Amino acid sequence: MMDTLCVVIDLSVKHWQRSATASDQPLSLPAFLIQLVAFLNAYSAGSSDNALAVFAAFPGKSLMLYSSTDTQPQSTTVSGPNSYPPFQLLDDAVVSSIIHHLESLSDSEQEAPCPLVGALTKALCFINRLTLDHNTNTSNAEGLDPIALPDPRVLILSVSPDITSSYIPIMNSIFSAQKLKVTIDACQLSGPDSVFLQQAAHLTGGSYLYLERRDALLQHLTMTFLPSPSVRGAIAVPTQDKVDFRAACFCHKNIVDIGFVCSVCLSIFCQPVPVCSTCRTKFPMKTLQRLNASRPPAQPRPAPIGTNGVSKANGSSYGTPA
Ligand SMILES: [Zn+2]
Ligand SMILES: [Zn+2]
Question: Where is the composition biased (Polar residues) (predicted)?
Fold first, then answer.
C-alpha cells in the first residue's frame, strides 16, 4: 500500500556544533546524515509506491531538498558498481544540497534561529497537494470531504530547543495536520526535551522520542519511525508515558505553568488582562480581581512544589484554568 513520509531536518549550525562537541555521546552532522540516508533508503526500498519528501530548516529559511514525486535531475556523480541508482539520486539530492546551503551561509546568518515550523508547514502543503492529486485521480474532485491519503506522516528530527515565539504557528500546523489526518512523529536528537514536539506527536497520534543513545540513532529510526502508523499497533513502538502540556503565553511567548484563557477566542495569557489583545474583548473588573486573588504567590525559580502541593515539575499534565 502507498505510504507518504515527509522528513523535516533541523539544520541549526549552532546546535549541531553543540551536539558534535558534547562530552556525553557526541553526534556530528556528517555522522547523522550517513544514518539518515540509510533510513531514507530503507523507507524507499519498502515499496516503489512509497512517496518521500525531505525538507530542511536552515538558519532563517526552509527548503524542500527532495521529493520522490517530482522528476529528479540526473545525478552528476558517477555511481560505483555497488550503488543502486535511485538511492544514489536520493543521497546526492539530500546530502549535497545540505552541504551546499550550509557552506553558502555567512557567519552572521549561521547564528539565526532555525524555525522548524516553516519546514513543517511546507511538508503539510506537500501532503495537501498529494491529497488533492489523489482525489482527482479517484474522481472525488467534487467531494466536499477529500479522501485522506493512506497513512501520511511527517517525521521531525530536531536538535534545537523550542523557539517559544513559534508556539502559535506550531499549534496551527498541528490543527492542519489533524484535519489532513497526518501523523506527526518527532525525534529530539540532543538538548532539552521539546514541549511543542511532544504535543504535536501526542495530538496527532504519533511517537515522540528523546534520543538517549545517540550512538544508536539508525536503530531508533528504523525500529520506531520506519513502520507506518497503521501497523504500529501490532508492534511495541515507544510511546510517551508523560506529555508536557504547557502552553506559551501569547503576550510574552513564555512557557507558563498556569495561564489565563480568553473565554471568547481562547488566547492564553500569563496574567489576568483587562482586555484580550487578540479579540479585544473587555473582561469585567470583578473577574480580574477574582483571578488575581486566586493566583499563587510568585515563587523563586526553580520551584519543584507549588502551593497546595501541586507539582510544578516538567511533565505536569493539568490543563490551563480558564
Ligand atoms: Zn505573557
Ligand atoms: Zn480573546
Answer: 308-322
Ligand nearest to the CA of 260: 1
- DSSP for 53-84, written as a single string: EEEEEETTEEEEEEETTSPPPPP-SPPPTT--
My answer on whether 111 and 19 are in the same domain is yes
Q: What residue type is 287 in one-letter code? A: T
Domain boundary among 194, 214, 234: 234
199 with 258, same domain: the answer is: no
* Residue 28's CATH number: 3.40.50.410
Amino acid letter at 100? Answer: H
Residues 139 and 281 in one domain: no
Ligand 1 centroid to 252 CA: how many Å? 4
pLDDT in tens, 160-182: 999 888 888 999 999 999 999 99
Name the residues around ion ligand 1, CB cutoff 5 A: 249, 251-252, 270
What's the pLDDT at 70?
80
Domain limits for position 280: 245-297+311-322
- Ligand 1 center–CA 254 separation, angstroms: 6
Instruction: Tell me the CA distances in angstroms from 299 to 29, 30, 245, 247, 258, one per residue in order.
Output: 40, 44, 21, 19, 13
Ligand 1 centroid from CA 124, angstroms: 29
Residues 292 and 143 in one domain: no
**Which ligand has the shortest distance to the CA of 282?**
2
**55 CA to middle of ligand 1, Å?**
32
pLDDT tens digits, 255-282: 898 899 998 888 999 999 999 998 999 9
